[in-house]
Amino acid sequence: MPTILPASTAEAIAKASVLIEALPWLQRYHGAIAVVKFGGNAMVSPELTRAFAEDMVFLRHAGLKPVVVHGGGPQISARLKELGIASEFRGGYRVTTPEAMTVVRDVLRGEVNQELVDSINEHGDFAVGLSGEDSDLFTGRKRGVDIDGETVDLGLVGDVVAVDPHAVVAAIEAGLIPVISSIAPDAETPGQVLNVNADAAASALAVALKADKFLILTDVAGLYSDWPNRESLVSVITASELRELLPSLESGMIPKMTACLEAVDGGVTNAAIIDGRLEHSLLLEVFTRQGIGTQVIEDGS
């Protein structure tokens, strides 16, 4: 007859099985740099922010080298509304006037970054806050957006055109978790800073760091090849397959999948978008066989 175990013992064995399943991934990613873009719904939920902070500390203790890049769209919109400054979006980008840029900078550096650093540091002195302005980490250049064949001025909005990761590398080598806000000095106008897309900034940093893993937390379960058909969720996709699919995606998903594609094209081993609405989804992606979300891999992998 099979042995009947007490419920507490069976639960303990199940937990042990989960730990053993993580073993090959612990071996594979020990010492690996993992760049994580944090934002969206997870950012405005205290519970999910706490879970995210725990995940970062877990990765650090598990031998990985996590790096966080964050945006702050919801917090910026709330502060602008509070100050009576209108928010306008064109082609998916926030039109950023000099007045709005002051708010963007203050919210990202003084509010979002500090809160995230504090959440991680509840578990020890692990996190250090940085900005894309620090040590010329990011350099940006203004961009517009094409709408109906015309280029529309977005104000102080830019693309990351260069990355100098030495400040991040120094933090990693000191055993710290860098937490980086997505703003960048303007390459063409000294003293001016630009609002840059956090997905793209995180991807550029992952390439510059030669990261092993690039992860974007988002507010969907992953990439759907035929949205809104929920049966079309893609678990793994190659770079060439994604490149072909990209023009047909929903507009909100294009920047995230473009960031993943650029990371893999730039030499990052694999990239993934995962559902940041689920507590500890990062750990499921990194340490389980099935993973979660959608993983982008090199052709032939």
Give the low-confidence spans. none
Structural class: alpha/beta
**Helical stretch tally:** 9
* Overall pLDDT score: 90
Give the beta-strand count.
Answer: 16
Overall body shape? globular
Gap between N and C termini:
45 Å
Cα-based radius of gyration, to the nearest Å: 20 Å
Strand content: 25-35%
Along the chain, the helix and strand elements come as HEHEHEEHEEEHEEEHEEEEHHEHE
| Largest sheet descriptor | 8 strands, mixed
Helical proportion?
25-40%
Q: What oligomeric state best describes the polypeptide chains here?
A: single chain
Strand order of the largest sheet: 5-8-2-1-11-15-16-14
How is the topology of this model organized?
Elements: H1 7-29, E1 33-38, H2 46-61, E2 65-70, H3 73-83, E3 89-90, E4 93-94, H4 98-121, E5 127-131, E6 138-147, E7 150-163, H5 166-173, E8 177-181, E9 183-185, E10 193-196, H6 198-208, E11 213-218, E12 223-224, E13 233-234, E14 236-238, H7 239-245, H8 254-265, E15 270-275, H9 281-287, E16 294-297
Parallel strand pairs: 1-2, 1-11, 2-8, 5-8, 7-10, 11-15, 14-16
Antiparallel strand pairs: 3-4, 6-7, 9-10, 12-13, 15-16
Helix pairs in contact: 2-4, 3-4, 6-8
